[in-house]
Design brief:
Largest sheet: none
Order of helices and strands: HHHHHHHHHHHHHHHH
Helix content: over 70%
Number of helices: 16
Radius of gyration: 21 Å
Shape: globular
Distance between the termini: 50 Å
Length: 438
Amino acid sequence: MPDTLRPAPRGALTRLLSRLFNVAPHEAPVVGAGLLMFFLLFAGYFMLRPIREMMGVAGGVNNLQWLFTGTFLATLIVLPLFGWIASKVSRRRILPWVFGAVVASLLAFGLALLARPDDVWLARGFYIWVSVINLLLISLAWSVLADVLASSEAKRLFALIASGASLGGLAGPLLTTLPVGHLGHGGLMLLSSLLMGASGVTAVWLHQWRDRHPLPQGASTAEQRRAPLGGNPFAGATEVFRSPYLAGIALFVLLLATVTTFLYFEQAKLVEQLFPDKAQQTRVFGTIDTVVQALAILSQLFITGRIAQRLGVGVLLVAVPLVMAAGFLWLALAPVFGVFVVMMVARRAGEYAFVRPGREMLYTVVAPGQKYKAKNFIDTVVYRGGDALSGWVKRALDVLAEHPAVAMLIGTGVALAWAATGVALGHQQRRREEATSS
């Protein structure tokens, strides 16, 4: 075949892939780097998640509200440290600093658990610490994407890039369930920390890509991303209280956390009753994670971006809350493990495929400091505060209510309020985006 004809098939293939995944050719590198960043981060985290769940059950499901409260208090301690780092170092260095500190802490926990695998207080400390850092690291990774991608790019690319998280979510449970008998929990933590460290290295490249492909004038420049954000360590909280838009996002996250906590307590109670063996509990949690990620990735690859581009962010924010409202009613009528699994899979797969990308798109139309400090305050303190508060409410309902369906009916009301908040945020995001582009 003549050489002049050879580029045509490649060009046709490029156009096919571009149409299939809705990606412009020059965006392929950033999509690949974002996919890798989330794959490594979530593979590392989901290696830890089944271990964390098992340790939570081991402490007694009636004590989970104390672990949630401990997590919230630990978050209040960690957030000012993050705020101090974000104020002093350039935006492009915030993630490496935080990821480096977390990797060091996981290495320390891994070594401690290798030495004392049956220490109850060490297990409780691990549960709390993983619950703090998972939100911190995921929030920060999304902050980088919201910083380097414009709103129009985010609508097309966020969900596709988030499929890396689902791929990592598939790989992590497999790594946990297959070699757990050989490595032990401490060994898995050491491997997890290496994956998370590699994720941090990949995230640095995203800023470098943006430098080579600058946004139109008026967006963040390379020089601005090299400058520290300034301000004080508590600026994120004050930004949220001053901005109705950010306050609305905080309410959305608070309601999300409440729904998640209600389901989480039901999960712990049912798993403890049906699967008394710890190794079996770890496998059950890992299997649920695998099913969730397999469903989420199909939507992320082919559906979510097109919905956001054509129908807007609000649709992504509303769909799952409405499904959860119906699911709580179903669970109130049929409180069995099978119904719960269907509902939990729908909630988590929907969150990864629709709610999380849509929620992160909300931050593409805010100021740089809000993308890091205010966003992190919402994703950590507000989320964990919602966990702690709803954990005590759920525990009180279980103790006081004569029938467990009462908590599920309350969950229905919370889910409907969650959906209404999503509608309002979708409208506000569209108005901000139009004002920015005009």
